[in-house]
Amino acid sequence: MDIVLSLKDTEWLATQYPGLKIDMTNKCIVGDIFLNRSYNRKTLTNVFSIKIMLEILPNMVLPKVYETSDKLQNIATKLDLSSIEDIHVNSDTSLCLAIYGREKECFSNKFTIREFFENCLEPYLFWVNYYEKFGKAPWKEYAHGGLGFLEMYAENRLTFREIQQKMSLKEISKYLYHYDYVKDKCLCGKNKDMKKCHNDIYNGLKKFKGNWNLARVS
Ligand SMILES: [Zn+2]
After folding, report:
1. DSSP 8-state assignment for residue 4
2. Most exposed among 42, 96, 122, 207, judged by the fewest C-beta atoms under 10 Å?
3. 107-131, pLDDT tens digit by residue?
4. Cα-to-centroid distance, 205 and ligand 1 (Å)
């Protein structure tokens, strides 16, 4: 589905982001974003070169966005991260802008370019900027996919029923096996005890196992 920009959208973009251009030939918005944003009384400013595709692919909520300089790669290198995925860049080099399954929360109703910038793209860029500057995330983030659901479950953001709907039995069984039998390696792949490495995932699995056993008995 193509993203259609209204005259109002176009004017808003030109005012808010004068460094960006709409390229109708290649169906994208491309150029520089001058970020100036605050969170918890910290203001960060920076420039990011980006390309936003004006198309939402089937089964997706958000358009693909790419960073077009080497800035993100340089940040990953500078912070000595094992992978650029640690700053939420997907394997196809597009940015991972929102938690899987929660992308719709960026919008009050349906997709709008303004809410996309304000609730999705800018928070992502702020996050990366903050991470680069302070070496840690500015706010709590969740792991990708099922592991993230387990973290939310540990925090009571998902119910036992919801987690069973979101994850296949195969996936949850795999994690439970790991929880029971693989003690010296975390599910994230690091050679560390899961309890110390990803404590919320550990707690989510512990809680799931408890409720699972209860559900079987009753
Ligand atoms: Zn871990």
Report:
1. P
2. 42
3. 999 999 999 999 999 999 999 999 9
4. 13
Q: 47 CA to middle of ligand 1, Å?
A: 32
Give the Cα separation of 54 and 68 in Å (integer): 16
Distance 162 CA to ligand 1 centre (A): 23
How far apart (Å, rounded) are the C-alpha atoms in residues 71 and 47? 10
Q: Decide if pLDDT at 22 tops 90.
A: yes
pTM beyond 0.70, yes or no = yes
138-162 pLDDT per residue, tens: 887 787 788 989 999 999 989 999 9
Give me the DSSP letters along 49-75. Answer: EEEEESB--TT-SS--EEE-SSHHHHH
Helix-strand-coil split of the chain, %, nearest 5: 45, 15, 35
Which are the contacts of 38, defined by CB distance < 8 A and separation ≥ 6? 44
- Compute φ and ψ for 112, nearest 5 degrees: -135, 150
State the distance from the centre of ligand 1 to the C-alpha of 158, rounded, in angstroms: 21
- Tell me which residues have their CB within 5 A of the ion that is ligand 1: 186, 188, 190, 197-198
CA atoms within 13 A on the CB side of 74: 8
